[in-house]
C-alpha cells in the first residue's frame, strides 16, 4: 500500500483548464454549440491555451469533466464518448491536445453512475484504467457519487489508483475521496496521499464570493489536519479558479489567486478562454504568483492570525523566503490598514536579522529592506488581499 501511487507525478500542484463550473453538463449542441461539452469545445480551448500564452505560463492540462460519455458502455463493456458530441473519439482528441504540447484530463466516478447519471467505473476499474491509458489520457478526475457504502468508496479509490499504475502510463490521479468521507468519518490523509495526487475536501466552488470565502474558512478551520500532509506528489484541492467569469469583483479575483498560491492549490481555471478580459488573463498568468504556487519546497500555507477585519496567512518557500497574504474579510466600508510585527513571521525567523519585502498583488512593487523588529502596515480593500514575498 505504501507504494500504491508510485507514479512520480504532481511534484508541484498541477495547472490547467477544466470545463465543469463554466460549462456544466451542456449536452445540447444543436441549441448551444459554443457552450456544449464537445470535441469542438476542447479543441478551441487547446488552441487558445497555446496561442494566448496559457501553456507557456504553466497551464498544461486541458480537462474534461462529467457528461462526456455515451449513456451506455460499448459491446465490450468499455466506456465510450458520446458519438455526436465527440465524433472523432477521445484518442483523436488526446492526439490533438498532445500535438499542442498540452495534456488531456478525463473524468469518471467510483460508483455505478457519475454525478450526472452517466456510466460509472464501479466493477470496471481495471478496464477503465486500461481504456484511458490506451486513449493517451494524462489525468483522471475520479468523483465519488453513487457509491453504496464508505467501504466500497474507499476500495474503489484504492483499486483505481492501482489500476492506473498498472497501465504503465503516467496518469495524474485526482480524487474526491475525503469530501465524501467527511460527513461520516475523519479521512485518513496519510492513506489518501498514498493513493491520490490531489484530493477535494470541501464542496464544489461556485462563481461567488460566498463560495470562495467558505472554502478559505473551511481550510483555516481544518489546517491542523490538512496542511502537514500536502507536499510534492499530493495536494489539497480547494477546487477551480473562477477568475474571468461573472461572480467575483476584481479584489475578490485577486484574493482567490493569492490564496490559491498560499494554499499550494492545483490551479485549474474554469472559464471561457475565448471570452476573457485582459485584466483576468494578466492575473491568471502572473509569473510571480504562479512561482509561489509552484514553489518546489512544496509546503502548504496556513492562517497565522485572524481578527474582526483581517486574516494573516503565510507560506514557507524555498530559499528561506515566505509568501505572506493579508486578507481584508470585511464587506463594508473602504480600504483598511493592518499592522503587524515582522517577528510574527516564520516563527520569528523570516526576517531575522533583516529581509527584503516585495508586493506581488494587487500590483507588484518593491517595499525595500526591513529589520527583524520592524512593523509592517498594509492597506487592503474590502474582500481584497495584498500578497507579499518576504
TrEMBL record:
The reaction(s) this protein catalyses: Hydrolysis of terminal, non-reducing alpha-D-galactose residues in alpha-D-galactosides, including galactose oligosaccharides, galactomannans and galactolipids; a globoside Gb3Cer (d18:1(4E)) + H2O = a beta-D-Gal-(1->4)-beta-D-Glc-(1<->1)-Cer(d18:1(4E)) + D-galactose; a globoside Gb3Cer + H2O = a beta-D-galactosyl-(1->4)-beta-D-glucosyl-(1<->1)-ceramide + D-galactose
InterPro entries the UniProt entry points to: Aldolase_TIM (IPR013785), GH (IPR017853), Glyco_hydro_27 (IPR002241), Glyco_hydro_27/36_CS (IPR000111), Glyco_hydro_b (IPR013780), Melibiase/NAGA_C (IPR035373)
GO molecular function, one term: alpha-galactosidase activity
Keyword Lipid metabolism appears in the UniProt entry: yes
Places the protein is found: Lysosome
Keywords carried by this UniProt record: Disulfide bond, Glycoprotein, Glycosidase, Hydrolase, Lipid metabolism, Lysosome, Signal
EC number in record: 3.2.1.-
Pfam families: Melibiase_2, Melibiase_2_C
Stretches assigned to the Alpha galactosidase A C-terminal domain: 298-384
GO cellular component: extracellular region; lysosome; membrane
Main location: other
A Gene Ontology biological process term: glycosphingolipid catabolic process
Membership in a protein family: Belongs to the glycosyl hydrolase 27 family.
Quaternary structure and interacting proteins, as annotated: Homodimer.
PANTHER family documented for this protein: ALPHA-GALACTOSIDASE A, ALPHA-GALACTOSIDASE/ALPHA-N-ACETYLGALACTOSAMINIDASE
Function recorded in the entry: Catalyzes the hydrolysis of glycosphingolipids and participates in their degradation in the lysosome.
Protein name in UniProt: Alpha-galactosidase
Amino acid at each position: 500500500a505504501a507504494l500504491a501511487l508510485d507514479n512520480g507525478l504532481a511534484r508541484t500542484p498541477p495547472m490547467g483548464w477544466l470545463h465543469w463550473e463554466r460549462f456544466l453538463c451542456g449536452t445540447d449542441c444543436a441549441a448551444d454549440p459554443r457552450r456544449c461539452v464537445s470535441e469542438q469545445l476542447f479543441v478551441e480551448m487547446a488552441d487558445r491555451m497555446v496561442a494566448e500564452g496559457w501553456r507557456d505560463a504553466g497551464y498544461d492540462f486541458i480537462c474534461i469533466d462529467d457528461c462526456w460519455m455515451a449513456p451506455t458502455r460499448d459491446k465490450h463493456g468499455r466506456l465510450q464518448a458520446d458519438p455526436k458530441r465527440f465524433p472523432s473519439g477521445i484518442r483523436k482528441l488526446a492526439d490533438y491536445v498532445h500535438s499542442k504540447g498540452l495534456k488531456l484530463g478525463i473524468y469518471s466516478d467510483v460508483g455505478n453512475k457519475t454525478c450526472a447519471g452517466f456510466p460509472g467505473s464501479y466493477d470496471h476499474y481495471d478496464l477503465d484504467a486500461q481504456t484511458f491509458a490506451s486513449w493517451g489520457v494524462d489525468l483522471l478526475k475520479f468523483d465519488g457519487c453513487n457509491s453504496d457504502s464508505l467501504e466500497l468508496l474507499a476500495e474503489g479509490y484504492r483499486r483505481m489508483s492501482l489500476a492506473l499504475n498498472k497501465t504503465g502510463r503516467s496518469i495524474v490521479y485526482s480524487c474526491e475521496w475525503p469530501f465524501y468521507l467527511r460527513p461520516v468519518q475523519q479521512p485518513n490523509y496519510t492513506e489518501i496521499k498514498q493513493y491520490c495526487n490531489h484530493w477535494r475536501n470541501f464542496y464544489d466552488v461556485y462563481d461567488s464570493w460566498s463560495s470562495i470565502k467558505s472554502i478559505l474558512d473551511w481550510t483555516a478551520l481544518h489546517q491542523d489536519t490538512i496542511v502537514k500532509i500536502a507536499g510534492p506528489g499530493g495536494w489539497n484541492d480547494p477546487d477551480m479558479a473562477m477568475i474571468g467569469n461573472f461572480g467575483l469583483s476584481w479584489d475578490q479575483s485577486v484574493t482567490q489567486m493569492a490564496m490559491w498560491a498560499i494554499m499550494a492549490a492545483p490551479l485549474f481555471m474554469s472559464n471561457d478562454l475565448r471570452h476573457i478580459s485582459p485584466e483576468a488573463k494578466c492575473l491568471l498568468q502572473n509569473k510571480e504568483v504562479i512561482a509561489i504556487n509552484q514553489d518546489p519546497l512544496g509546503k502548504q500555507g496556513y492562517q497565522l492570525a485572524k481578527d474582526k477585519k483581517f486574516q494573516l496567512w503565510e507560506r514557507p518557500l524555498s530559499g528561506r523566503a515566505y509568501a505572506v497574504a493579508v486578507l481584508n474579510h470585511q464587506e463594508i466600508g473602504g480600504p483598511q490598514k493592518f499592522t503587524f510585527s515582522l517577528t510574527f513571521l516564520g516563527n520569528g525567523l523570516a526576517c531575522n536579522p533583516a529581509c527584503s519585502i516585495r508586493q506581488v498583488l494587487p500590483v507588484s512593487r518593491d517595499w525595500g529592506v526591513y529589520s527583524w523588529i520592524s512593523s509592517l502596515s498594509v492597506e487592503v480593500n474590502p474582500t481584497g488581499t495584498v500578497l507579499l514575498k518576504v
